[in-house]
Amino acid sequence: MNALTIAWIAFPFFIGFLIFLFPKIDRVLGVIATFASIEYAILLFLQPSPLNYQLLDSFGVTLILDQLTSYFILTNALVTLAVLFYCWQRGKSAFFYGQLLILHGSVNAAFACADLISLYVALEVSGIAAFLLIAYPRSDRTLWVALRYLFVSNTAMLFYLIGAVLVYRASHSFSFAGLGNAPPEAIALIFLGLLVKGGIFLSGLWLPLTHSESETPVSAILSGVVVKAGVYPLIRCALMVEEVEPIVRFFGVVTALLGVFFAVFEKDSKRMLAFHTISQLGFILAAPVVGGFYALTHGLVKAALFMLAGRLPSRSFKELQERPIDRQIWIALVIASFSISGFPMLAGFGAKILTSKNFLPWQEVAMNIAALGTAISFAKFIFLPFKNSEEKSEIQRGFWAAMLILLGGLIAANSVYYEAYTWGNVIKPIATIVVGWGLYLTIFKRASVKLPRVVEEFEHLIGGMTLMSMFIFWIVLIRSNL
């Protein structure tokens, strides 16, 4: 299995470079690579015990793969496959597909790492591939957004690298386990890098502009997969180092509340989805031990929602209220919105129940408020007017193939946690959704509150990193003195 793991990590990179040699079969090669990841994720899920593979013993360079990893790998494979089908007839060049496969491989590698230095390399490669995909249209706007993303990402990873060196000095190992003996400043710097990469709490305020201004398939891959490359190491660290888990849970709660607060008041559909990505990443971190299943359901639903939002006649919810959308698009929007709100018969229900059962008592009230905010946010899609449409086009076949993968995955994954179906578990999310719809129709639909965007400005993002590093250092210091 170890040899197979190395081959699986290298395979997408090999395919990515092969695409440049055989550009006429770029999409077919991409599909082959994603199916290889799906098969590997299934094999990993069936493994009775975790795979622990030490690449360099003396430096603690290690790969750890278990069922938690399999959820993240499956998310990466299914979302990438959906993006390939979505773009199938849209005239993308071999360069686009090559970068997409390199991004797929680097994110896979990030999910397999259990040491700080391998993770640094994987995240840097994924950051460059994501930058090239964001900049792909070559417009002034996308070039600025891509450069902004690259600068913020690289600055964060510089802090991370300094933290990794400090961990090595303290424990003579780059393993995640070394965080247990690391000084507070090392943990603060590493956390700052991962919080920025993962789009967590205030460090994630670069995300709304980047995800909303990118092309639709790029928004889907960024929100469905790429941010999870920064979230997964936080979960792995929380499971390996007891002292780290409370910090990860804390950032999960505050991130869920911050993201949903902005999402509730947002009037732009793509920005609302981006803010909601921040909120849902908080749910993944709030219960690390079951974060894999939540990450799978969120990845599928958010990729579907970004693709559906790209088919709407306007990004403004106010304009959409006056322009009925296609009935088929509306039905797909409702399925996705129901899943992310936790409605039964879809995977989001099981993921929310499983996650809520692993909350600590101090987390429950805050996470229930965040769940209510989710219901309010997605009522904006559910209560849109719709009409029948006669539109038929070649592009729609690839679009509906992508929807089949993503929404079909949400229905199929509903069986993963079938134990959730008890009367008590079913009533609570339905009651939350009904209350959320009521609040939306009576209050938030008519509200004209417009939140300032000053905190998303470039100079404030960079300055905010310094404040966040001090805040994290203060939290770590308090925890170490308890």
Describe what this molecule looks like in 3D.
With 482 residues, the protein is mainly alpha-helical. Helices cover 73% and strands 3% of the residues. It is built from 20 helices and four strands. The strands form two sheets. Strands 1-2 form a two-stranded antiparallel sheet. The chain has a two-stranded parallel ribbon with strand order 3-4. A hairpin with a 4-residue loop joins strand 1 and strand 2. Helix 3 (67-86) packs parallel to helix 13. The longest helix is centred in the first third of the chain and has 32 residues, at 140-171.
TL;DR of this structure?
With about 475 residues, the chain is mainly alpha-helical. The chain has helices at about 1-20, 25-45, 65-85, 95-110, 115-135, 140-170, 185-200, 205-215, 215-225, 230-240, 245-265, 270-285, 290-310, 315-320, 325-340, 345-355, 360-380, 395-410, 425-445, 460-480, and strands at about 50-55, 60-65, 325, 385. It is built from 20 helices and 4 strands.
